[in-house]
Amino acid sequence: MTVPAPRVSTTQFDTNELVINMGPQHPSTHGVLRVVLRLDGERVLDADCVIGYIHRGVEKLCENRDWTHIVLLTDRMDYVAAATNNLGYVEAVEKLMQIEVPRRARYLRTVLAELQRIASHCLWLGTHAMDIGAMTVLLYAFRERELVLDLFEEFCGARLTYNSMRVGGLPLDVPPGWDRKVRSFCDLMEGKLDDYETLLTNNRIWLKRTRDVGVISAEEAIGLGLCGPPLRGSGVSRDLRKDEPNAAYEEFDFDIPLGTRGDTYDRYLIRMEEFRQSIRIVRQALDGLPEGPIMGKVPRLLKPPAGETYHAIESPKGELGYFLVSDGKSTNPYRFRVRPPSFCNLQGLKRLVRGHLVADVVALIGTIDIVLGEVDR
Amino acid sequence: MTDDTKPGADAPGEAGGAVSEPAAGPAPDPPAAADAAPPKAAPPKPEPAAAARPKSEPAPPAKPAAAEAARQAPTAASAKPAAPEKPAKPAAAAKPAAAAKPRPKPKPKPPPEPPKGPPDPPPPEGMESPAAVAAVQEALPDAIEALSYWVGDWTLIVRRERLLDVLELLKTHEAAAFDYCSDVTATDWPPRERRFDLIYCLYSTRLRHRVRVKVRVGEDDAVESVTGLWPAANWLEREVFDQFGVNIVNHPDRRRILMPDEWQGHPQRKDYPLEGPGELLMENPQDWLRVRNLPDEAGTDREPGPDTEIE
């Protein structure tokens, strides 16, 4: 081996491309995501995501289950936002069967979905901040998330996989006094949000780590199929709660926060604002909560007429779509397809990380807010 | 139980006939008892020997046995799922006359007669198609095979050769402007000649409307990738390729995505079984698939299939 002559220049370092594996056992990949990074020194030239480590074949499983049994399997996809998964599925079946859902059930579903959004965003905020180095926020955010889980526990007995909805309505009405607890949680959460923002929004380190990191233009974001906060961060006004209102969203006032620069900081601000908008929706829904039944007229054995449909809702991560095909004969769906928002957003990671530092990859995985249970299904 | 499973593991090798015996039905108890008795005596003999030998001799007799088992693995595999049941059932059936109990199980098989294809109901009479659909109808009338409307969703069923033309028009046309590709997925209808439905769910961020485009493709038909129009389709098409084995061509990065790269078979196909291969056959799933499908073709009654098991 020949030893190269020592170089005098300090600006021109001769670097070789280096390929490294990030994950699958890496704490900041939020599960078992493996990113193969091609590096030039500290810069990322290219990234390739390797997924499928927890692929369980949920779609195949669902095609061999009753329409009613599937609700429980949808919990296991985005397991930090189980209620919105339930909501998307039951609404898709209701659309296929043209079932009318009682108004009270639609209101309660909205409350549950928005509480779930708060819980999911809490988890995102905590982990995202910790990835970047703000340890305190994790502890605070998880503390508040716990309160939401308590509310869910009181409603349906579970803390993570709720199985909280049924085709045609809800399995249970809320326990007496529950709405009061939700209201007091909303009051408390508003104060806590200010605390989080004090810690982060004007924090110089936070700004340096997130401003102009992972900038993506609106056209590119649309082309790449980004959805949810990453898409809105680029200034595209697309929120299915407004565009294709489901549950009872068309009856409430709320705003869709939009970003201007399309960077990580904008996506952070958007989610922080979504917390507040969710609280606003929850309050309106509780104020106007109608009396009445919680289950519509649904046959005991679901057998939708032959046909197919695609129904999408705005989950905390983005557009969660269900494509269902019924053959009209069996009690199982012939085809069950989930359009997972995390999967589609993760696809954009390759584009986002290009040219950034390795440390930014961690921030960018955090900013797209993935749950591997949903990516791999 | 442990006694029962041992003969079960050994038996299929020696007793190829034993596999067909449960089909004979009327007398499952005596043969099973007869089977169980001799092997019970038989396997313990080699086993203590095998257990004793490894210390002194490196186990030359054990090796041939393993090799035999490996050679017969394909055939044994079909018997294996049945084998543990065989001893279990007679044991349970010995006291009550429950021999008839396993019989009704094949009954659910006839009802799930595979559907021929999606109904794709045409739009009701007098219903006006939306501007986007009308635009395609006007510009490319020959490209459309059919039009479907169901529970508020419009679907364009398009000829495979003209797929890209239609999609490009949908993306660029003023009245359509489908700039966002929500989803690409497929549906498998095995009896049909062009067995796959490839489905593109499109959305317009400007006009906020949706449409689905569907194309019917056979197993070997090439489908042009739409990544040129919507980069979003990259992973979605990879998933379709991975899960269904649809031959998508001109894709920038056509690899499996959810399954391991070396995986054989396409799990979302309707003829792919629900349960996974055992650990033994993990290494050669192709063989396992073939073997798994053999009894079905022969028409013999096997262990209950995935559909019946659930109930």
Report on this structure:
The complex is a heterodimer of chains A (377) and B (311). In chain A, 46% of the residues lie in helices and 12% in strands. With 377 residues, chain A is an alpha+beta fold. Chain A has one domain (48-376): Orthogonal Bundle (Cytochrome-c3 Hydrogenase, chain B). The longest helix of chain A is centred in the N-terminal third of the chain and has 30 residues, at 103-132. Chain A starts with 16 loop residues before the first strand and ends with a helix. The mean pLDDT of chain A is 88. Chain B has a domain at 131-258: Beta Polymerase, domain 2. In chain B, 41% of the residues lie in helices and 14% in strands. In chain B, the strands form 2 sheets. A 5-stranded mixed β-sheet of chain B has the order 1-2-5-4-3, with helices on one face. Chain B has a two-stranded parallel sheet with strand order 6-7. Mean pLDDT of chain B is 67; it is low at 1-99 and 296-311.
Defining traits:
heterodimer; A: 377 residues; alpha+beta; Cytochrome-c3 Hydrogenase, chain B; three-stranded antiparallel β-sheet; 12% strand; globular; B: 311 residues; alpha/beta; Beta Polymerase, domain 2; five-stranded mixed β-sheet; two-stranded parallel ribbon; 11 helices; 7 strands; disordered N terminus; disordered C terminus
Q: Topology of this structure?
A:
The complex is a heterodimer of chains A (377) and B (311).
Chain A: E1 17-22, E2 34-40, E3 43-50, H1 58-62, H2 70-74, H3 82-97, H4 103-132, H5 135-156, H6 178-200, H7 204-210, H8 218-223, H9 229-232, H10 240-243, H11 264-287, E4 307-315, E5 318-326, E6 335-339, H12 341-346, H13 349-353, H14 358-368, H15 372-376
Antiparallel strand pairs in A: 1-2, 2-3, 4-5, 5-6
Chain B: H1 2-14, H2 16-24, H3 29-41, H4 46-56, H5 62-71, H6 73-93, H7 131-139, E1 144-150, E2 153-158, H8 163-172, E3 180-188, E4 196-203, E5 210-217, E6 222-224, H9 233-244, E7 247-249, H10 285-298, H11 306-310
Parallel strand pairs in B: 2-5, 6-7
Antiparallel strand pairs in B: 1-2, 3-4, 4-5
